[in-house]
Amino acid sequence: MLRIQNLVKRYGHGEPVLRGLDLDVPGESVVSIIGASGAGKSTLLRCINRLVEPSEGSIELNGLELTSLKREPLRKARRRIGMIFQGFNLVDRLTVMENVQCGRLGYIPYWRAALRKYPAEDIERAYHLMERVGIAHYANQRADALSGGERQRVGVVRALMQQPEILLADEPTASLDPVSSRQIMELLQTLSQELSLPVLINIHNVAEAREYTQRIVGMRFGKLIFDGEPADLDQQAMDAVYSGTSETTQAASDSAPMPMVTP
Amino acid sequence: MTDADASRVPDSRRHWQKPPFIANPWLRWGVVLGLLLYAVWAISTLPFDLDRISQGMTRASRIFSGAFPPNFARYELLIDGFLESLQIAILATLLGLILSVPIAFMAARNIAATPIYLLGRGIIIVSRSFHPVIVAILFVKAVGFGPVAGILTLTLYSIGFVAKMLAERIEEIDRGQVEALRASGSRYIGVLQFAVLPQIMPRQIGLGIYQLDSNLRASAVVGIVGAGGIGSTLMNAFGRYDYDFALAITLVIIGVILVSEAISGRIRRSIG
Amino acid sequence: MTSPTSTSVAERTWARYTPQQRWKRFATLLVVTAAVVWAVESIDIIWPWVWDAPAQVGDLFGRMVPPDVSNLRAILWALVETLNIATIATFVAVFVSLPIAYIAAQNTTPNRFTLWLGRFILVSSRSVNTLIWALLFVAIFGPGVLAGIIAIMFRSIGFLGKLLGEAIEEIDRRPVEALEATGASRAKVVLYAIVPQVIPTFFAVGILRWDINLRESTVLGLVGAGGIGVILQGAIDTLNWPTVATILLAIVVLVVLGEALAAWLRRKVI
Questions:
Q1: Residue B257 and residue C236: Cβ atoms within 8 Å?
Q2: HSE-up of B94 (CA within 13 Å, CB side)?
Q3: Confidence band for A89, pLDDT divided at 50, 70 and 90
Q4: What is the CATH number of the domain that holds B80?
Q5: What is the mean pLDDT of chain A?
Q6: In this complex, do C145 and B46 lie within 8 Å of one another by their Cβ atoms?
Q7: Searching chain B, which residue's CA lies closest to the CA of residue A130?
Q8: Residue A246 confidence (pLDDT) above 60
Q9: Which candidate in C176, C179, C182 is best for mutational testing of the A interface (most A CBs within 10 A)?
Q10: Domain parsing of chain C, residue ranges
Q11: ipTM for this prediction
C-alpha cells in the first residue's frame, strides 16, 4: 500500500513541479500515470524512492514514512522499491548476471559484491527470474550485446531481485519497438498478479495504458486531474490531460486504436 | 530457502562465476604467474635501504626548510633565463616547422618513392626515440654550453613530432584535387603547391602553436644538462644549494607553463 | 584558412580572402616576424660557433663509428633497469592516481574542499617535469634507482589522474542512478556502476603512460637517478664515443620495442 499526501516538489525558487499531489495505490494493482512531458510524472516516481528529494508532503509505503528517512534507513527502504527505467540503465560492460545481481547489492556484504561471490540462493533466484522472462541463456553475455527488449527484461529482473514491495516503472517502453514494448507491458501486468505487487507505470502511450492497466491516473502541471478505469478516460478527460500542450496530436494518434480496446 | 528446496535444484544453478578475462586456463595462470614472478624479481633488484630512506627524510626536511620561503631576490637572473628559454623555443619552433615539411613529404607513402620514404620514416623514428635531454647532452658536447645546443635539440624534437603528424595528414589528403591538377597538365611542383600545400597548411599552423608550447616546456628541461635557458639557471641554483631560489624558479616555471598551455589551447580552439 | 567567401553571383571580382581576413593574416605575420627578429637579435649566441656547428656535430658522429659493443652486458643490464623503473613506477602511479582522480572528478568528489585538493595535487604533479622531480629526489635519497622511480611516479600521477578524472566525469550517469535506487551503498555503486565504465580508460592511459615513462627513464640517469642514463653520462664524460653510440642504439631499440608492445597491448586489452 502506497499513500502519497500533499506532495510538493520545487527546484530552487522556481515554479513547483509537483503541487500538492495525493495518490493511493493499494496492493497488487497496476496503475498507469499519463500526462504530457513536463507534467511531473518522472519527478513523482523519483520522489517515491527519493532519487529526487520531495519539498513537502508525505509518502508512506506499507506504513513506513519515506520522506523523513536518513542515509542508512533510506538505503534499507530503497531495497524494497524496485525501479525500471526508460533507458534500461544497465551497466553495459558487466554481464547480464552481474547486472541482475545489482538488485541484491543492498543486501550482500561488500566482499561478496567485489569478488562476485553471490549467495547460492540469489543465483538460483536470478536464474529462476531470468528463465521466467526468457533471458537465462544470456547470463554470461555482456549487457550491451542484448537487444532493447532483452535489456529491459534484464532491468525488470534486476528490480525483482530486490524482492520489492512496489515496482516503479519510468517510461519502460518508450525506447522499445512496438512488439517488445507490448511484451514488456504484458510482463509487468502478469508479474504484478503473480507476485501480488503494486506497479506504478509512467507511460506515454495511452493505448498501452488502456490495454494493460486497470487504473489510469492523469497528471497535468504537477497535479492529478484524472483517476479512473480505462473506460472512464473519454475524449473530454483526454483533453483535460493533454489539450493545449504540444503533445495533443501525438496523444490523439496514440489513442487511435482505443475503440478496439475499450468498446 | 529450505534445504529440501535446495536439493531439488541442480548444482549448476546455484553457482555462478564471472567468465574469466582469458578463457584458456593454462594461458591465464601462465600470464598471472609470469607477471607475479616479474614483480617479485623487479622489486628484489631495488636497492631498498631503510637507513638511506630515513636519512633521506632528514635531508628532505633540510631541503624544504631551506626552500621556504622562495627567494625572488635575483629576479633579473630569472627573467634573463626565461627570455632565453622563450628565444630558444621560438627559433626552434620556426626551424622545426620549416624543416619538417620536406621530411614529411619524404615520409608520406603516397608521394615519396620507397627508399626516400624509408629514409624519411627513419629520421622521424630516430628523432622521436631520443628524449630531448639525451639529444641536448650530445649537442652540448658538440657545440658547447649555451642556447645553440638548446635550439638544435628542440629543432630536432619539433621535427620528430611535426613531421610525423604532417606525414600522416599528407597521406590522407584528397586524391581528387591532386588528380584534377594532374589532369589539367600541372607539373609536380605545381601539384604540390596548389593541391597538397593548401590541404596541409591549417594543420601545420595548429601544430606550430602546439609545438611552441611544448618547446617552451622542453627548453626548461634541456637547460638542466647545459643547453641554455631557465633550466640552466635552475640547475645552477640547485648546484649551489640555493634551494630558496630553486623553488622560486620552479614556481615561475609552473606558472609560465600553465599560462602557455591555456593560451595555446585557446588559440588552437579558435582556429579550429 | 576558410574557403573563399562567395557573396553574390553579380559580384565578379574574386579575392581569396576578405579584407578582414587579409588584415588578420597580415597582423599574425607581423607578430611572428617581430618575435623571430627579437629572438635572433637579442639571443646570447656566439655566431662563429653556430657556423662551426655542422662540422662539430659531424665530427662527433665520426668519432662514434664504429660502435663499441665490448660493454654490451653492462648496457643490457642498464636497459633492464630502465625498463624496471618505468614499469614499477607506472604500476604504482596508476593505483595511487585512482583515489586522486576520484576526488578530482566533479561528479564523485565528496565536497568542494576535496575537489580543490585533488585538482591541486594533479596540477602540481603535472607541471613539474620528471627531471626536476628527479633532481629533488636525488638530493633527498641520494643517487640511484629509488629516486628515479619516485620521480617518475610523481610526474605520472598528475597525468594519469587528470585523464582518469576526465573519464569519471564523462561516465553514463544512468546506471549510477539505477544502482542508487536499489539501496546499494556508495562504495558498491562505485564498484558496480563507475569502475566498469572507467576500466577501458584505466588500461589505455596506463599503457600510454608506461610508453612515455620508458622514454623518460632513459634520461633519469643524467641527473643520477638510475637507468641507462647513468652509463650514458659516464661514457660521455670519459669521451668514450664508440660506447655512447652503442648505448644510443640500445635506447632506440628499447623505445621502439616498447612502443610496439604498448600498441599490441592496447589492441589486446581494449
A1: no
A2: 14
A3: very high
A4: 1.10.3720.10
A5: 87
A6: yes
A7: B13
A8: no
A9: C182
A10: 72-269
A11: 0.86
Tell me if B162 sits within 8 A of B100, measured CB to CB.
yes
Which residues of chain C from 187 to 206 reach within 8 Å of chain A, CB to CB?
Answer: 187-189, 191-193, 196-197, 199-200
Distance CA B116, CA B113 (A): 6
Contact A105 C184 (CB under 8 A): yes
For residue C4, the model assigns a pLDDT of 47
Residue A142: helix, strand or coil by DSSP? Answer: strand
Give the DSSP H/E element, type plus range, for residue C46: none
Show me where the domains of chain A are located: 1-75+201-263
Q: Which residues of A touch C179 (CB under 8 A)?
A: 91, 102, 105
Q: What percent of chain B has pLDDT over 90?
A: 7
CB-CB neighbors (< 8 A) of C139 in chain B: 59, 63, 238
Provide DSSP, A118-140. Answer: --HHHHHHHHHHHHHHT-GGGTT
The CATH code belonging to domain A1-75+201-263 is 3.40.50.300
Residue A50's contacts (CB-CB under 8 Å, 6 or more residues apart) are A66, A67, A69, A74, A78
Closest Cα partner for A168 from A64, A38, A41? Answer: A41
CB contacts < 8 Å between A and C, how many? 82
Averages of pLDDT over runs of 10 residues in chain C (270 residues) are 48 69 82 85 77 83 84 89 93 93 90 91 87 88 89 94 92 93 92 92 93 92 88 90 91 91 86
User: Using CA atoms, how far apart are residues C123 and B262, in angstroms rounded to an integer?
Assistant: 13
B26 in reach of chain A (CB within 8 A): no
Beta-bridge partners for A84:
A169
Q: Is A32 helix (H, G, I), strand (E, B) or coil?
A: strand
Show residues of chain C in contact with A51, CB under 8 Å: 177, 180-181
Number of domains in chain B: 1
Q: Domain limits at B172?
A: 76-270
Q: B8 in contact with A at a CB cutoff of 8 Å? A: no
Enter the CATH code of domain C72-269.
1.10.3720.10
Q: Is residue B180 part of a domain?
A: yes
Q: CA-to-CA distance for C186 and C195, rounded, in angstroms?
A: 12
Cell of A163: 524482492
